[in-house]
Structure formats: C-alpha cells, structure tokens
C-alpha cells in the first residue's frame, strides 16, 4: 500500500508471528494516514519485563516467534505511534485468565508549514 493511505489499522495477534516485528510495526505506521488510528494487540507474558524471541521458527510449533513483555508499548512509540494502553480483564473461564492489553495507536498529524508570503 502507498504511504499515508489508510484511515485505520487493526492488528490482533499478528506481530508475535513476524520474524521482524519492528518492521511490521513500521509498515503499519507507514500506511496509516496522519491522525489515523488503530488497535494493536499481541499476547503478552505476565511478569515479562522485556520482550524476547521464543526460539521457535516461523511455521514451527504454534508459530510464536516472540514473547512480548511489558515493553511492548515502548516498541510502538519507537516507530512513531502515540500509544494509549487499555487493560481488559479476561473472563475467569478462559484458558489464560488475567489481563489483556489493547494498544490504541495514533499516527501524529504532519506539521503544516505556514506560507509566510501571504
């Protein structure tokens, strides 16, 4: 897709399967229009401070190349997103009970250069 092309992005449980997740984040940022928004979720390991590779190759096992930790929002900010993290309590009956984090992202608007010749 061309740069600054879409109004919104939705990426739910995708980036943990991508070899270079930061490149994936950069692509989401690149295609998003200025002031565009999105929701990005990944499974996050409770108590894991720093994201790490799982050691599993793509398409091997369940395919998670990354275990994401508490630093996930930092990675989103590093590529340029403004980030708001929302904690959502999961149902007690779920296999993985606890908190899910939804990351609401926005691409900042481009600064307009004022024409001072007027």
Describe this protein's structure.
This protein is α+β, with helices and mostly antiparallel strands. 18% of the residues are buried. The strands form two sheets. It has a four-stranded mixed sheet with strand order 1-2-6-5. It has helices spanning 21-31, 72-78; strands spanning 6-12, 32-41, 52-53, 66-67, 82-89, 99-106.
Q: SSE layout and pairings?
A:
Blueprint: E1 6-12, H1 21-31, E2 32-41, E3 52-53, E4 66-67, H2 72-78, E5 82-89, E6 99-106
Parallel strand pairs: 1-2
Antiparallel strand pairs: 2-6, 3-4, 5-6
Short description:
The protein is 15% helix and 31% strand. It has 118 residues and is α+β, with helices and mostly antiparallel strands.
Percent of residues in helical segments?
10-25%
Q: Tell me the strand order in the biggest sheet.
A: 1-2-6-5
- Which spans of ≥5 residues are poorly predicted at pLDDT below 50? none
Largest sheet: 4 strands, mixed
Q: What's the tally of helices?
A: 2
- The strand count comes to 6
Mean pLDDT: 85
Tell me the radius of gyration: 17 Å
- Helix/strand order, N-terminal first: EHEEEHEE
Characterize the overall form: globular
Distance between the termini: 36 Å
Task: Determine the strand fraction and express it as a percent band.
Answer: 25-35%
Q: Structural class given helices, strands, pairing?
A: alpha+beta
């Amino acid at each position: 897709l061309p740069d600054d092309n879409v109004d919104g992005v939705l990426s739910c449980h995708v980036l943990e399967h991508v070899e270079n997740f930061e490149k994936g984040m950069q692509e989401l940022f690149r295609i998003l229009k200025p002031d565009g928004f999105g929701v990005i979720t990944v499974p996050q390991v409770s108590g894991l401070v720093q994201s790490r590779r799982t050691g599993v190759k793509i398409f091997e096992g369940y395919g998670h190349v990354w275990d994401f930790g508490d630093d996930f929002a930092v990675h989103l900010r590093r590529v340029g997103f403004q980030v708001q993290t929302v904690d959502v309590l999961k149902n007690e009956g779920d296999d993985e009970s606890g908190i899910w984090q939804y990351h609401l992202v926005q691409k900042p608007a481009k600064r307009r250069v004022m024409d001072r010749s007027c």
